[in-house]
Design a protein that fits this description.
It holds the Pfam family CMAS. The protein is an alpha/beta fold and about 400 residues long. The chain has two domains: about 1-85, no CATH class; about 100-390, Vaccinia Virus protein VP39 (Rossmann fold, 3-Layer(aba) Sandwich), CATH 3.40.50.150. The protein has helices at about 1-10, 50-60, 70-85, 100-110, 115-120, 140-155, 170-180, 190-205, 245-255, 280-285, 295-305, 315-330, 335-340, 345-360; strands at about 15-20, 25, 35-40, 65, 160-165, 185-190, 210-215, 225-230, 255-265, 310-315, 365-375. Helix 7 (about 170-180) links the parallel strand 5 and strand 6. Helix 6 crosses helix 7 (about 170-180) and helix 10 packs antiparallel against helix 14 (about 345-360). The protein is elongated. The model has no long low-confidence stretch (mean pLDDT about 90).
């Protein structure tokens, strides 16, 4: 099988070296900068038609090792799967996301280790797409700019009641309270996030303005008590089947005239197919269990049918590519510390995930959209300015 596979790989002319389980090496292209080390000979037949989930999974499980710059590793893996894989993506299965399933999935991803996340996130631990005015900003500044961008779009003002759905470690909640004088309720399903988030609220003396709770979005009282609602990086966990319920819930939480901001990753495909060549399958299995990405039209339709009016949409795809690149670089620079915090298998997952997602966003495999919606007043009017000029003053 190896004799058949080698000429095919050599035709791709990639800067790749192959190292076998017995120590033998062969260069498959000029000036190899990446070494693919096969540790299990049983993997060879599967490489005839590889996919990104096969390669990524084999790396995570220790069946192969990858040596070289991560960006090049991801690019070469993509080139190989495009040339030799079948490239097919199955239509998504509409899963029934109940509260127990969602809580388990969130705990798997977010309760890994607060200290681990602190290694490579910004100082406020904002685990979502940053906002770059030029693309050259440092991560801390770009995340503060993102928080300000969200608050400006929501037209926050002193005394506003803001609900933060999926509040993470409370970075946005604290920022909104501190910089805009708002009262914030944040909810999360991660106990580890909640613990550290509350500690940080207390450390900043914001207990009178910020309250963080362990709660499912479906358990919130739908009495329109909030002036503004924001959901950042959360609706990816909702599931296709529950999108209408999710949007109806957001609409019922905000008062007439109020605003709802949904910030999240969206699919390139209208039918919600996962990222091709197996990347989506890898993420679902190893990173975000039960995660599902709807297309912009799907979430837009559900928002409109809930009674909210979409008033602004912005794509931040390249902003997220840059964010993920910075996260990946920061993690790579502190691998020795990371190895002391999480299991080796988990670290392998995160190395591949961050670098792979940066590549995927750059290549337009997936997108990220901020969708601002207004809940119309009884006469159909709303409280927004006539233009966006206030956002950039």
């Amino acid at each position: 099988m190896l004799a058949t596979l080698l000429p095919i790989l050599q035709e791709l002319d990639l800067p790749l070296r192959l190292r076998l389980w017995d120590g033998k090496e062969m260069d498959l292209g000029p000036a190899p900068c990446v070494t693919l080390e096969i540790k299990d000979p049983n993997l060879i037949p599967q490489l005839a038609h590889p996919s990104l989930d096969l390669l990524g999974g084999a790396y995570v499980e220790g069946l192969l090792d990858l040596h070289g710059p991560l960006e090049e590793i991801i690019r070469i893996g993509d080139e190989i799967t495009r040339a030799l894989g079948d490239g097919q993506s199955a239509l998504p299965i509409r899963e029934a996301h109940d509260k127990a399933t969602d809580a388990e999935a969130i705990s798997y991803h977010y309760d890994l280790s607060n200290a681990f996340y602190q290694l490579w996130l910004d100082r406020d631990m904002v685990y979502s797409c940053a906002y770059f005015e030029t693309g050259n900003e440092e991560l801390d500044g770009a995340q503060q700019a993102k928080l300000r961008h969200l608050c400006r779009k929501l037209r926050l003002k002193p005394g506003d009641r803001l609900l933060d759905v999926g509040c993470g470690w409370g970075g946005l909640a604290r920022f909104a309270a501190r910089e805009y004088g708002t009262e914030v309720v944040g909810i999360t399903l991660s106990r580890e996030q909640l613990k550290l988030g509350r500690e940080r609220v207390a450390a900043e003396g914001l207990e009178h303005q910020v309250r963080l709770e362990l709660m499912d979005y479906r358990d919130l009282p739908t009495d329109g008590q909030f002036d503004k609602v924001v959901s950042v990086g959360m609706f990816e966990h909702v599931g296709h089947a529950n999108l209408p319920l999710y949007c109806r819930q957001l609409a019922a939480l905000v008062r007439p005239g109020g605003l709802v901001m949904n910030h999240g990753i969206t699919s390139r495909y209208i039918d919600g197919r996962p990222v091709s060549h197996g990347a989506g399958k890898f993420i679902d299995h190893y990173v975000f269990p039960h995660g599902e990405l709807p297309h912009l039209t799907a979430i837009g339709s559900c928002i409109s049918e809930s009674g909210l009016e979409i008033v602004d949409v912005e794509s931040l795809r390249l902003h997220y590519a840059r964010t993920l690149q910075l996260w990946s670089e920061r993690l790579e620079s502190r691998l020795e510390e990371a190895q002391q915090m999480i299991p080796e298998r988990a670290l392998r997952i995160w190395r591949v995930y961050l670098a792979g997602c940066a590549y995927g966003f750059r290549r337009n495999w997936i997108n990220l959209h901020q969708i601002l919606a207004s809940k119309p007043l009884p006469d159909g009017s709303h409280e927004l300015p006539w233009t966006r000029a206030d956002l950039y003053q």
